[in-house]
Specification:
mainly alpha
């Protein structure tokens, strides 16, 4: 199996496992439902950051593609960490709004940078 696929499956199994343990802890009265929500959704933010961290390590033959991948990686790591941090510490309405804004901003930075690289390539 591909190492990337194994890592992706491990993230998925880890999130499901954490969700099951958190749900069990809620049923036992150890934690409340807000904590379960924060933990599971916070794991999603950490997964986004992990994917961003792995992006620049993959081989891409084009120099422009490597530049775009580095910017995408940084924007994913930062937006994923902001997302996870908001879900860990902010009130839930703020975490929803701010977390979505962080991930959308990361995507916008990546798309904007790719468009700028493309227009520079056409101009040259």
């Amino acid at each position: 199996m591909n190492k990337t696929l194994i890592t992706d499956l491990a993230w998925g199994a880890g999130i499901v496992g954490v969700a099951l343990v958190a749900s069990w802890a809620r049923q036992m009265g150890l934690v409340d439902s807000d904590t379960v929500t924060r933990v599971v959704i916070g794991m999603t933010g950490l997964m986004i950051a992990s994917f961003g961290n792995r992006m620049p390590k993959t081989f891409v033959p084009s120099a422009r593609a490597r530049q775009a991948r580095r910017v995408a990686a940084w924007s994913l790591v930062l937006s994923g960490l902001v997302y996870a941090g908001l879900w860990a510490f902010a009130p839930i309405p703020v975490a929803v709004t701010g977390g979505c804004a962080a991930v959308l901003s990361g995507m916008a930075v990546t798309i904007g940078y790719c468009i700028s690289l493309r227009s520079r390539a056409k101009a040259a």
